[in-house]
Amino acid sequence: MDSSIDEAAAQPGGAGRTPPATPLPAPDPAMPAATEPAGEAAPGTAPSPATAPAPVPATGGAGEERSAVAPASLSPSRASDFMQCPLLYRFRVIDRLPEKPSEAATRGTLVHAVLERLFDAPAGERTAPRAKALIPGQWDRLRESRPEVTELFADDPEGERLAGWLAEAERLVERWFSLEDPTRLEPAERELFVEAELESGLRLRGIIDRVDVAPTGEVRIVDYKTGKAPRPEYAEGALFQMKFYALVVWRLKRVVPRRLQLVYLGSGDVLTYDPVLADLERVERKLHALWEAIEQATRSGDWRPRPTKLCGWCDHQAHCPEFGGTPPPYPLPVTAPGAGTV
């Protein structure tokens, strides 16, 4: 399957040709460029007015007025948030509490942008030097679109930390060339926004890094990770996001992706999984159960913290009871258990 997917690059017309399979839906032209789909916006940002539920005024801290919204859809990252810690999900989705940018996450955004833009060049010009040369310009664009990232190096007047940070981004980009050959790839889609509504009414959304379509019509979903590959016992958790995307593609086009591929630039590993329909049905059942729990917590206002080792990296310790903090007043209406039932 790998060879048939990769051979798509050798076909005349490349990405501009019509693939044998029904093409995946094009990104919604109304969607803003973002790392999270509208309605599941990145922490601390406002949702798209065109798709977000009616906001409820709330105070986000330091006297700042923010907009609280009831959950309306589910993305892989927000699903992972709820499974990690329901209170974290509340802080990010309902309270919209601001979070400081991190060097690791910002570097990941930068590297993703470089790998996406590299495919704008003709196949023969997709080289490591060209990719690394894209980094300064993409960093400038990132600072323009997200001015808060400049805070990362506010205490670095000589630029030494920034230089090291950019050098690490270069190493990650260069490592990608040892894992995949972009001269033999013509992605059918890059940074593809996908959305599907299940029969239950649950809306699933996400942004797929890359979709490859083989001449035979087989679909491969690819995601870049700038961290290290997880240990084998944690591989299932890493694949959850990919199975989520595969479910959305299946619900949209009734096509089960042939392969799911995670490319770990931090460790130089490639994790692949070939899903079957039963995998996607299991994921759908899991997401329905997860959404029921989210809806129940939304109605009751009962969002329990779930302490783990990841708490040390959380921006919301000042609001978390586990650290002696107090959550902000719950901004949504609360329904008492059993209310409205006979």
TrEMBL record:
A matching Pfam family: PDDEXK_1
Key words of the record: ATP-binding, DNA damage, DNA repair, Helicase, Hydrolase, Nucleotide-binding
Protein name: PD-(D/E)XK nuclease family protein
Pro residues: compositionally biased ranges: 20-30
Top-level taxonomy: Bacteria, Bacillati, Actinomycetota, Actinomycetes, Kitasatosporales
InterPro entries: PDDEXK-like_dom_sf, PDDEXK_AddAB-type, Restrct_endonuc-II-like
Molecular-function GO term, any one: helicase activity
Example GO biological process: DNA repair
Taxonomic source organism: Streptomyces argyrophylli
Domain PD-(D/E)XK endonuclease-like: residue ranges: 73-321
Composition-biased stretches (Low complexity): 31-49
Region (Disordered): 1-77
